[in-house]
Amino acid sequence: MRIILLGPPGAGKGTQAKLIVKDYHILQLSTGDLLRENRRQATALGDKAQTYMDAGDLVPDSLVLDMVEVEFNKPELDAGYILDGFPRTCPQADGFDGLLKNMNLQLDHVLVLEVPDAELIRRLTARRTCPECGHIYNLIFNPPQSEGICDHDGVTLVHRSDDTEVTVQNRLKVYQEQTKPLIDHYEQQGLVRHIDGTGDVQAIYQRIRNVMK
Ligand code: AMP
Fold first, then answer.
1. Pocket flag, ligand 1, residue 9 (CB < 6 Å)
2. 44-55 and 165-174 helices cross at what angle (nearest 10)?
3. Which domains are delineated in the chain?
4. Banded pLDDT at 17 (limits 50, 70, 90)
5. How confident is the prediction for the chain on average, in pLDDT?
6. Which atom number of ligand 1 is nearest to the Cα of residue 9?
7. pTM of the predicted model as reported, rounded to 2 decimal places
8. How far apart are CA 5 and CA 7, in angstroms?
9. Ligand 1 in reach of 32 Cβ (< 6 A)
10. Would strands 81-84 and 27-30 be described as parallel, antiparallel, or unpaired?
11. Is 137 touching ligand 1 by the criterion CB < 6 Å?
């Protein structure tokens, strides 16, 4: 199974991807996570990506496509994957179409998580993540048991540097201008399933399961 998860920042792509991974035994590929890992390890790519990410702008397509191409050659992805945060622009979608064609593979679903802007801002500014296991918390509706500490491994939670209100506003604008047009791109391929991304995490996941039947 090969799935793309589309939706604005804060729509819950990472959270839902983790639930899908467990049930469908496929891997999650998050370009945001890969880029953050490159930054942590101070690779050349991480250094190049830093200023774009801090401003909430997109990292140039050529860098992202090169990074992703390496990932797609890994045998672990043969069983399928869910893409979270990729593709994000029309050139990325075209590049990915070409890659799939060369590998003789097809996509199964493009899931579009829909959440109103006001809710996205509320979610993102209150979001905290565990740098160790990647678990995502929200101080308002899904806080950890002890303040600032991951329930799973006791590691101190972090507030992503691009989850501040000013950067979040820019990320939403970038989504509208550069990523939303991809919905049309995949509508033409008959792959798009719209999902109401509001409410309880499990309720949203049930909606996803229903459209994937
Ligand atoms: P995310 O964790 O998906 O919200 O991504 C965080 C940041 O990483 C984005 O705001 C971009 O700066 C960068 N990024 C992640 N994925 C991509 C992509 N597919 N294309 C360009 N930039 C990306």
1. yes
2. 100
3. 2-115+168-211 (3.40.50.300), 126-163 (no CATH)
4. very high
5. 94
6. 4
7. 0.90
8. 7
9. yes
10. parallel
11. no
Q: Measuring from atom 5 of ligand 1, which residue has the nearest CA?
A: 32
Percentage of the chain beyond pLDDT 90 is 87
Atom of ligand 1 nearest to the CA of 33: 2
Residue 208 has pLDDT above 90, yes or no: yes
What's the pLDDT at 141? 81
Question: Which ligand 1 atom minimizes the distance to the CA of 13?
Answer: 3
Residues contacting residue 196 through CB under 8 Å, at least 6 positions apart: 114, 204, 207
- Residue 113 CA to ligand 1 centre (angstroms): 17
Question: Average pLDDT of 76-81?
Answer: 92
Would you name the residues annotated as active-site residues? Answer: 13, 88, 127, 160, 171
At 116, list the tokens.
């109103």
pLDDT at res. 41: 95
Question: Helix, strand, or coil here: 30?
Answer: strand
**What integer is the mean pLDDT of 128-151?**
92
